Amino acid sequence: MEDLIKKYKQYPNTWDEMFDSKGNIRNVYRDFGSFLKNTDFDNLTQMRDFSSQFFKNQGITFTLYNDNKGVERIFPFDIIPRIIDHKEWRSIEKGIIQRIKALNLFLKDIYHEQFIVKDEIISGQLIVNNKYFIREMINLSVPKNIYTHISGVDLVRGKSGEFFVLEDNLRTPSGVSYMLENREITRRLYPNLMPKHKVFSVDNYPQVLYRQLKTLVSKQNPVIVLLTPGLYNSAYYEHATLARLMGVELVEGSDLVLYDHEVFMKTASGLKKIDVIYRRIDDDFLDPLSFNTQSVLGLAGIMESFRQGKVCIVNSPGTGIADDKAIYSYVPKMIKYYLNENPILQNIETYQMGNKDQRNYVQDNIENMVIKKTDGSGGYDMLMGNKTSEIEKDKYLKKVKKNPNNYIAQPILNLSTAPCIINSKLAPRCLDLRPFAIFGANKIEVCPGGLTRVAMEEGSLIVNSSQGGGSKDTWIIKK
């Protein structure tokens, strides 16, 4: 294994999590590096095969949306963990809490007084013309003034080693179950190494989530359910896992009924009143009376129940505007405006394609740019300027020209890499990090670690699970 470490070739001009620019093992990986050097590669291969079989036995799958066959695949997992020092993590944690506070205040503001618009910090047109701005939420008071109870903040590390926020996920962020399963298998793979590193636990996430959701209503023992679109949703495994670990019922829209504006769940012993709904379906499908009239996934009239305070919906409808990519560039200003603080975590420089000067700059420097739809997700429908032909660029820019306000552009970053076991050798792969934050009535708690997603293809920057990306366990260590 020591020979494979010596042959490890870093990507040029890129921060590697495990090795510095001279090829020396970073201090945070020192003990793990010693373990690797003294481990036979055949043993690591057996560990990798064991983890694959574990994921298969657990039924841990994800559907690739660009797979025409629609076949579910085993979630790719690399056995070498991503390790972050506790001191560095504390800074990340503070930055996430700061960001979530500001975004929540922004949501409350735009659905009520709209001070941020009146003070010309952000354009009113950018708000009202946004498809995620839900007019049914205007002047609707939400429990404890919390809109975004569960958040996933995507972070990337640049070539200098600094973490940047890539995007915010405030609607129905996914990936928690994979974080938990990654930890379960890693505990089995490294039974002695994890205690030695004093790795912070993530296992209590479901209990923390349940405890925080209980604080949203005044009832002492509220009834909480998880609302899923159903078995054919790509993240159904996560929905079922979270419901089981939280000890709450997993329900579909057909399991719910409305009576006197209160929501009830059908049970064998009759109807049971529901107090909190952790919904994993999008706004459009939540209530056919308010949104998509063809939807059968939600419950007709649930928005009126929510408006009357009869039920708490997690996350609140309308949170999507706060994680829209057009709004993303204003988050540092929100932090300054609402909290009077400087951002702890920086944004990636972002260009609004609706701005003619910025659009011209992007077009002149397109080789170094990535262009995305403001409402896009999963790494789909975007242009990587350094990896597309001139014909593809022209075609994409024509789409942008038709509706430029629906697109933003950012410089292409050299995402940090970490070693992975690929084809019987140690090879670098790009990665990001999605920590999860839970906002309850008393505080915001950030799970120590999160989901590290890995681009499994050489040179790729696309880490999204829906496009074949994999993951690693994330160790926050306190030595």
Please characterize this protein's 3D structure.
With 479 residues, this protein is an alpha+beta fold. The protein contains 15 helices and 24 strands. The strands form 7 sheets. Strands 13-5-4-20-21 form a 5-stranded mixed sheet. It has a 4-stranded parallel sheet with strand order 7-6-11-12, covered by helices on one side. Strand 4 (150-157) and strand 5 (163-169) form a beta hairpin. The longest helix is centred in the N-terminal third of the chain and has 25 residues, at 86-110.
User: What fraction of the residues are assigned to beta strands by DSSP?
Assistant: 15-25%
Poorly predicted runs are none
H/I helix tally: 15
Radius of gyration: 23 Å
Estimated helix fraction = 25-40%
Sheet with the most strands, sense and barrel status = 5 strands, mixed
**General shape:** globular
List keywords for this structure.
479 residues; 24 strands
Secondary-structure blueprint:
Layout: H1 2-6, H2 30-37, H3 41-58, E1 61-63, E2 72-74, E3 82-85, H4 86-110, H5 115-118, H6 124-128, E4 150-157, E5 163-169, H7 176-189, H8 193-197, H9 205-214, E6 224-227, H10 236-246, E7 249-251, E8 256-259, E9 262-267, E10 270-273, E11 276-279, H11 302-307, E12 312-314, H12 325-328, H13 331-339, E13 346-347, E14 351-352, H14 356-364, E15 369-373, E16 382-384, H15 390-402, E17 407-411, E18 417-422, E19 425-434, E20 436-439, E21 444-446, E22 451-454, E23 470-472, E24 474-477
Parallel strand pairs: 3-24, 5-13, 6-7, 6-11, 11-12
Antiparallel strand pairs: 1-2, 4-5, 4-20, 8-9, 9-10, 14-17, 15-16, 15-17, 18-19, 19-22, 20-21, 22-23
Helix pairs in contact: 3-7, 4-13
